Amino acid sequence: MSGLHELRLTIARLRAPGGCPWDQEQSHQSLVRCLIDEVSELIETIDREDMAHMREELGDVLIQVYFHAQIAEERGDFDLDDVAHEVNEKLLRRHPHVFGEGDRLSTSDQVLTKWEEIKAQEKKNGPVATGSFKPQPPRLPATMLAEAVWKQILKKQLPRPPSVQSEAVEALSEELDDAVLGRELFVLCAAARSKGLDSEGALRRYADKVMHDVEQSLDES
User: Fold this and answer.
1) Where are the domains of the chain?
2) Domain over 3-78 is classified CATH 1.10.287.1080
3) What is the pLDDT of residue 171?
């Protein structure tokens, strides 16, 4: 019996009558914090390149995937095989240069361009976009949200807010490297802490403002 099948049986047993009271009480919603914690711990092992610990943390993340699939199966929504089948079909569909009749692609940039082209043609799940910006996960860290917003501004050639012009961004980027960026972000967070400000919230609110200003500019044009 494979380890994957053994894990599936274990999770099902924990949830079944006579299993573990804690596991039986859990829902998709109650497990969200667990998923965030486990992914964060996995990222830490990746940053340290700690392979032995990474194996353990990958297992903890895998538990979350199996747990959510088990709950969904009990509700009659879908099961683990459905999850695996759907994501495998997505990989096959988005890599025609490997699995299909598509032209061979030789660079990562070509692959990403093709990926986005195929993705744009697929049926959309999740929230329907009502503006110029692709909806982002509400729990996405603020720095990743800001990067995603700027990426979409450039990709879709949207109007730049006066406070965030490409020239200023490019000029600043020339002065940055990994160490300088880390130091400046740390200093800003430390200063925010001293001032009693929420750096995560402030950046998220500003990213929201940028999106609002762009949409308003489009409405007025």
Assistant:
1) 3-78, 142-220
2) yes
3) 86
